[in-house]
Amino acid sequence: MKFDQPAGTNPIDQLKIIGQPVDRVDGPLKVTGRATYAYEQHAAAPNAAYGYVVGAGIAKGRIAAIDIGQARRAPGVLAVVHAGNAGKLDRGAFYVARALAGPQVDHYHQAVAVVVAQTFEQARAAAQLVRVEYVREPGAFDLAAARAGAPVARPAAFGPPPETELGNFIGAFAAAPVRLDAKYATPDQAHAMMEPHATIAAWHGERLTLWTSIQQINWGVRDIASTLGIPKQNVRIISPYIGGGFGGKGTILSDAVLAALAARAVGRPVKVTLPRPLMFNNVTHRPATLQRLRIGAGRDGRITAIGHESWSGNLAGGRPEAATIQTGVLYAGANRMTRLRLAQLDLPEGSAMRAPGEAPGMMALEVAMDEMAEKLGLDPVEFRIINDTQIDPANPRRPFSRRQLVQCLQTGAQQFGWQQRNRTPASRREGRWLVGLGVAAAIRGAPITKSAARVRLDGKGIVTVETDMTDIGTGSYSIIAQTAAEMMGVGMDQVVVRLGDSAFPESSGSGGQWGAASSTAGVYAACVKLRALVAAELGLDAQRAQFADGRVTQEDQSFALAQAAKDGELAGEDAMEYGDLAKRYVQQTFGAHFVEVAVDAATGEIRLRRMLAVCAAGRILNPKTARSQVIGGMTMGAGAALMEELVVDKRHGFFVNHDLAAYEVPVHADIPHQEVIFLDEVDETISPLKAKGVGELGISGVAAAIANAVYNATGVRVRNYPITLDKLLDHLPA
To answer: CA angle at residue 328 from 326 to 332, to 5 degrees?
Structure first.
């Protein structure tokens, strides 16, 4: 099906099931332990051996020698796979880091070997017996030191142009009566998902099956085939449940490659998981940024010049952190400039993490907007509203499909009690606590991509959906079931959803906030096909027939839906593809975050008291799962603001705090009541469902709102995240 014109009225608009707060389809399985994750596929892959990964002990250099003799002779050991016996390996199309070091070592804890044994304990013990002799080489581990020589980044997929300029930014900034020129820093951050990277691999002749934790199954098939040098059609990937990804499981990583190599070496299934202390340096992370914001405005508060530059680092061939992506479209301004610079570093690969680009970019931009509002003597909400735009600042002929940023700000201000905010910092005190309010805008792109599904109807009236879409904890099972139920006119109890198998039609996968809108559109297309088959079987006109309450009705004729499949199952399969609407309209999601904090006047301890997100993100397919997504993003934003930082050892080139004991993430005691408001909105330019994604909007802007609240509470402006006690103590009011 081709979607190339704005959607009109269609069966989804009945909103009998779509738009309702339906409980999660997979919820009972997860809370009772019956959802089978990658490492738990015992029945599917019996008699599996265990692989244990040995990580490199240096950050840059080469392997001079590797001695596996003791390990190979250890009890239960079946094989030790390393670069010397693994065969030729390539890389996939998304990640640039090699899964297996040798002879060169590219980063600390890059895998140098995997030890395979009968039991996990035997593999782990034998891994300690592998002896590796390294030759260290000097490496680059300090972004600040590499900043001066960092070139402008090359164009990269999923990011903005590395360099843009509109009008005369330099001249307009110099001439502006009110100016801000400030620098900000965001640290390296870890995905720290609950389920570690894990894979079971099994070979059947030349065919490989992977049970793995992955977000994009189609990418995984492509990349494992490329890495191992085998045909794509010889690969099957199965991933029905995923315990969190946040962009860190976009495609196959070292666990999948090493499991496949190990299984081939020992001739039986092998399961490999990355121990938590290995994950932080072995796989990807959100890279640190150094950012510079320059904003110029007239006395009336209208921005006349805005410039945003960002520096990040990565392995050779890696992508930059796209921290300028939102600055091109969030606020008006005739004279604009953005620039991304990328230094080559020898740290683990930097790649996508929830809202790549916007999450760290808004941590700087929305603090700069607050600082600028103060310079102008304007309320921060008012300043943002003054600079709203309904057209692409770089192309006046290209409007936004829907843009309710002003409504988000106004609704949030009223709901949160923004009028209680004292404009004078450090002026509100409750006993030992300094209290402040903060605000930030939120924006995240609303991309949509081709996605396919197959929908089957059996003689009992059961509708079964099959697509290789994944559910990383986001609610894919639920919204796909709701889509099929609405389209076929049945209850949720009549729908079965099967996800996460490359044998099913190829979907969009989960990532980039495109999963919900794309995958449900693919299911819609398949249901349209199935409705036509049903109507034909019943002698009805598919365009005029009504599907509701398990029946198909046209004027005075009415049939049970199941009757159409009485002589055999019917199946409709199709994909939703797209025209040029994304080029004709700017398609984005918008929001506003409001936060209240209390800061201990003596110790600098920061406590979040209240958090509110107001979101405008198209039709909300399921308010319950959507709210869960947004509060999850708000929680991650709180972590980014107050505690999360991968600390770099700049001498030896590794992240020091590489476990959950030392890498701080928010816990229940850190998070207050979180309120989410969804504005009524449909976006006819996105898909027939008129919905957008919401999973990454929730984190965008949160950290800045907290930083602005801390400033309002204390008068201390922290531009170097996270906002920890040491950055406040020497500057707190007497």
So the answer is: 110
User: 332-344 pLDDT, tens per residue?
Assistant: 999 999 999 999 9
Relative orientation angle of helices 217-228 and 254-266, to the nearest 10 degrees = 50
Q: Where are the beta strands (DSSP E) in 298-381?
A: 303-314, 335-344
User: Edge-to-edge, what's the strand order for the sheet holding 2-3?
Assistant: 2-3, 570-578, 451-457, 463-466, 495-498
Which contiguous run of DSSP H or E holds residue 452?
Answer: strand 451-457
What pTM does this model have? 0.98
- Say how far apart CA 326 and CA 330 lie, in whole Å: 6
Structure tokens at 551: 């029946």
Q: What angle do CA 447, 451, 455 make, to 5 degrees?
A: 140
The alpha carbon of 357 is separated from its chain's Cα centroid by a whole number of angstroms, namely 11
Within 8 A by CB and 6+ apart from 696, the residues are: 354, 355, 358, 359, 444, 512, 513, 633
Residue 589 contacts residue 443 (beta carbons within 8 Å): yes
What is the percent of the chain with per-residue pLDDT over 70, rounded to a whole number?
100
CA 494 to chain centre: 31
Over residues 549-607, the pLDDT tens digits come to 999 999 999 999 999 999 999 999 999 999 999 999 999 999 999 999 999 999 999 99
What's the rounded Cα separation, in Å, for the pair 442 and 399? Answer: 19
CB neighbour list of residue 509: distance below 8 Å, 6 or more residues apart: 215, 216, 217, 218, 219, 468, 469, 470, 515
Q: How far apart are CA 537 and CA 531, in angstroms?
A: 10
CB-based contacts of 674, cutoff 8 Å, min separation 6: 611, 612, 613, 631, 634, 635
Task: Read off φ and ψ for residue 92, nearest 5 degrees.
Answer: -85, -170
**Alpha carbons 514 and 205: distance in angstroms, whole number:** 36
CA distance 534 to 455: 12
pLDDT per residue as tens digits for the range 36-84: 999 999 999 999 999 999 999 999 999 999 999 999 999 999 999 999 9
3-class SS of residue 275: coil
Q: For 479, list phi and psi in degrees, rounded to 5.
A: -70, -30
pLDDT in tens, 397-422: 999 999 999 999 999 999 999 999 99
Residues whose CB is less than 8 angstroms from the CB of residue 597 and which lie 6 or more positions away in sequence, other chains included = 435, 436, 438, 606, 607, 608, 609, 706, 709, 710, 713
CA distance 711 to 422: 12
Q: Which residues are catalytic?
A: 696
Q: Please, are residues 318 and 107 in contact by the beta-carbon 8 Å criterion?
A: no
How open is the CA angle 332-334-340, to the nearest 5 degrees? 80
Question: Cis bond leading into 425, ω under 30°?
Answer: no
**ω into 103 cis (within 30 of 0):** yes
Residue 157 has pLDDT above 90, yes or no: no
Pairing verdict, β 557-560 and 551-554:
antiparallel
CA dist 202 and 182 (Å) reads 54
CA distance 180 to 124: 55
